[in-house]
């Protein structure tokens, strides 16, 4: 068994409008762990997006890896982990789901669990609580998923989307738990039917890769955006400016506060340049769909 690995996990966006807790899209923004078997636990953060003050026993990577090992009656051996991330915390870009997927992969490697892809989908979605971000980080591409009461995940996987994505990241955090507090407890039947129909059309448009329709239905959400948008800095202004600049559509990324636009590939950097002028208080990044999902590379140990 190799004693050193690099685990790479893509971040993700969820919902994309009305695909509430079921649609996820992997993005080419990554969490990376370099893992070495060691005599004692050590986790080193080498990214500005990661905190420097933490306890090993409270760290999400450690707790989830330990929980995963224990599910299979294994003992997690100590590791030295160097952790890098392009995913800001609590911004709606799947940072927690990526960490969960990475931790499951860590346990899989160092404990020889031989987990299947379906195992990873089930475990990560159960821990995350819903399958949108987690399935996208495991598989890459776009995922449309459902998790039953036993925690079994069924996923339709859409690959090779021919579009680009632009994320507008404000310098404020919004935890999903806080964003859920503003949602209604229930909807009347007619409202729920319209909301569900919009979600169905979004999913079908992604399967067909009909980008004009994808954009239209991204902007048709009734489940959460009407209630969360007031928590999001400059949401309406970004929506209007992106449309004027040629975006197919714009929506919250997950629970926010990041906003995401889908754009034609040929707009690319020109679109980003316009948006940076309009919204200087946001970090604005051009990204694509990641096509690999979680990946592992064995790193040779070089003796010095």
UniProtKB/TrEMBL annotation:
Keywords: Amino-acid biosynthesis, ATP-binding, Cytoplasm, Kinase, Nucleotide-binding, Threonine biosynthesis, Transferase. InterPro entries: GHMP_kinase_C_dom (IPR013750), GHMP_kinase_C_sf (IPR036554), GHMP_kinase_N_dom (IPR006204), GHMP_knse_ATP-bd_CS (IPR006203), Homoserine_kinase (IPR000870), Ribosomal_Su5_D2-typ_SF (IPR020568), Ribsml_uS5_D2-typ_fold_subgr (IPR014721). GO terms for biological process: threonine biosynthetic process. Its EC number is 2.7.1.39. It catalyses: L-homoserine + ATP = O-phospho-L-homoserine + ADP + H(+). It comes from the Bacteria. GO terms for molecular function: ATP binding; homoserine kinase activity. Residues 204-275 form the GHMP kinase C-terminal domain. ATP binds at residues 88-98. Pathway: Amino-acid biosynthesis; L-threonine biosynthesis; L-threonine from L-aspartate: step 4/5. Residues 61-141 form the GHMP kinase N-terminal domain. Gene3D superfamilies: 3.30.230.10, GHMP kinase, C-terminal domain. One of its GO terms (cellular component) is cytoplasm. Belongs to the GHMP kinase family. Homoserine kinase subfamily. HAMAP family: Homoser_kinase. Catalyzes the ATP-dependent phosphorylation of L-homoserine to L-homoserine phosphate. This is Homoserine kinase. It comes from Ureibacillus yapensis. The gene is thrB.
